[in-house]
Write a structure and sequence with these properties.
about 250 residues; single chain; mainly alpha; Penicillin binding protein transpeptidase fold
Length: about 250
Amino acid sequence: MLRNLLRRLTKLLLWLAAGSALLVLALRWIDPPGTALMVERKIQSWLDNQPIDLQRSWRPWSELPDDLKIAVIAGEDQKFAEHWGFDIAAIRQALAHNAEGGSLRGASTISQQVAKNLFLWSGRSWPRKALEAWFTGLIELLWPKQRILEVYLNSVEWGDGIFGAEAAARHHFNVGAPYLSRQQASLLAAVLPNPRAWSASRPGPHVQRRAAWIRRQSYQLGGSHYLDQLSSALTAPQWWPDWLAKP
């Protein structure tokens, strides 16, 4: 009976793994209509009896400004074009810092944040981290870097009920995402570590300093020239089919 139970459990896990892989592959071309984080925020608002109006409008890669793309990379994941989803050096540094006590420091890459926001719930439990690693691996294997950043910029939270660059640009600066200035883009990137507490349109001294640092980092990374690396970044093993390996 135990052997039969284990066999059934193994089959279930294999089906779940295959289903999740097919879902991630489909989202390479299909724009996700929403995210797990949006659902979580909506449910939480009902439980708290504080209705929230979720705002999100999709902008394709070509309509997202380069200044915002590079600002987010500079602020969140400067090795984005190089890694396969995990910044091992940053993870080691975060573990060492957290072991010393004090405030917790994260080391999530943009790919990990996409996996978490799109498919999972909030929290720091080991089961969630394991699922995050699984989905991050699938995303890095099945999506080109440009697609990862495109989904991230259209899904990341930028305030209570504000999701994606278009909603953030209109909420904070009353412009569409394509018309964001370099300074506005850096302010949006600066608040991402704590978007529900910090404001891009009413930045405090810390956010202003962080935005200035992001502008300097964006320049040092090469600005728009850095983005050219994303189209040539390795996105799949050499044996992967050409139709999957290409953006």
